Amino acid sequence: MRKKKNKYPPGMHHAWEGFYYAVRYLVWAPGDIRARLKGAYRDNLMGLVREELPADLHKDYDWIMQMLKREKPFRNKTGSKIAQRIFSVWESLEIKRQDDSVP
User: Fold this and answer.
1) 31: helix, coil or strand?
2) 6 within a domain of the structure (yes/no)
3) SS3 state of residue 7
4) Is 67 helix (H, G, I), strand (E, B) or coil?
5) Exposed / middle / buried, residue 52 (Cβ in 10 Å: 0-12, 13-18, 19+)
6) What is the rounded average pLDDT for all residues in the chain?
């Protein structure tokens, strides 16, 4: 019997959790998108490490972190794009997680 090879790095569950809770925060927390992004970053994304994500998501992760760490405030339209990208990363992680759980 062939051993199944994981398609994701060892820390991916931690990354999945961080993005999952960031998405929940963006949906349920009060305030405008800028305030919710700040909270999602502070409470869920700040402790993540790039290497916990699959390589194909590094570019998205880098862009999200660059946008969330920048000093200049962003407009709501930009905030919406950041939130969409956060959801997209979580969705990709969820698909990879489900694919890997199927024997």
Assistant:
1) coil
2) no
3) coil
4) helix
5) buried
6) 89
